[in-house]
Design brief:
CATH superfamily: Dihydrofolate Reductase, subunit A
CATH class: Alpha Beta
Distance between the termini: 14 Å
Shape: globular
Number of domains: 1
Structural class: alpha/beta
CATH topology: Dihydrofolate Reductase, subunit A
């Protein structure tokens, strides 16, 4: 399959959490990050062709997904959303960068038309859930050769499960949240067998303002 080179980038607590509690915005935890750490994150954004987050991330965090802390071009924003149920007043519909909403055939046409009127492109990929086997080659053909994924846990799992991830970069937040039902870096049902798990090797690690950054390459 021709697909983009995929790098998952995430801010994660020491115990692997993405938010303070289920339904909370990750921006609360990201407020702990310093401008220099944000520069690291936005430098990656400036180096890729596309940036992807899930529909739930748009609903809870309302991210802009643009390059602001460094000089660089904004990547194309890609939002998988099976039923097109993305808030129509979300920041991802700003004119700062192109936006693609990825839907399935079950998305209501009325909703799709409203999204089109906002200037976003629609890609249909799948019947019931967004099918990355269909989506990734389409993105590649559109010139998205490097794709950054900023979560959340469900998107991360879909890409990890299918071995589509090439790199993972983690900004380690030096805090512990706890909680059994708090979203973790990778969600989903999990591999449940040692022979199925995804293996990685450390590529680089360094510290920015007391925040550990680790960069991992997936072993294919």
């Amino acid at each position: 399959m021709n697909k983009p080179y995929i790098t998952i980038v995430s801010e994660v607590t020491i115990d692997g959490k993405l938010t303070l509690y289920r339904g909370a915005s990750s921006k609360e935890l990201m407020s702990l990050m310093t401008p220099e750490v944000y520069k690291y994150l936005h430098t990656i954004r400036a180096q890729v062709d596309g940036i992807m987050v899930g529909c739930e991330t748009v609903r809870t965090d309302d991210p802009s997904l643009t390059v602001r802390y460094v000089e660089g071009k904004n990547p194309i924003r890609i939002i998988p959303c099976s039923t097109a149920n993305v808030p129509l007043n979300a920041n991802i519909f700003s004119k700062d960068a192109p936006t693609i909403i990825v839907i399935t055939k079950r998305a209501p046409q009325e909703r799709v038309e409203k999204i089109k009127k906002l200037g976003a492109e629609i890609i249909v990929a799948g019947e019931y859930l967004v099918d990355f086997d269909i989506l990734l080659p389409i993105l590649y053909e559109k010139g998205i050769k490097k794709l950054m994924v900023e979560g959340g846990a469900s998107i991360n799992w879909e890409l990890v499960k299918k071995r589509y991830v090439d790199e993972i970069r983690i900004i380690h937040l030096p805090v512990i949240i706890g909680g059994e039902n708090v979203p973790t870096f990778v969600g989903g049902e999990g591999f449940k067998a040692l022979k199925k798990i995804l293996h990685l090797e450390i590529k680089n690690h360094f510290v920015i303002d007391k925040f550990l950054i680790s960069e991992w390459k997936v072993i294919k």
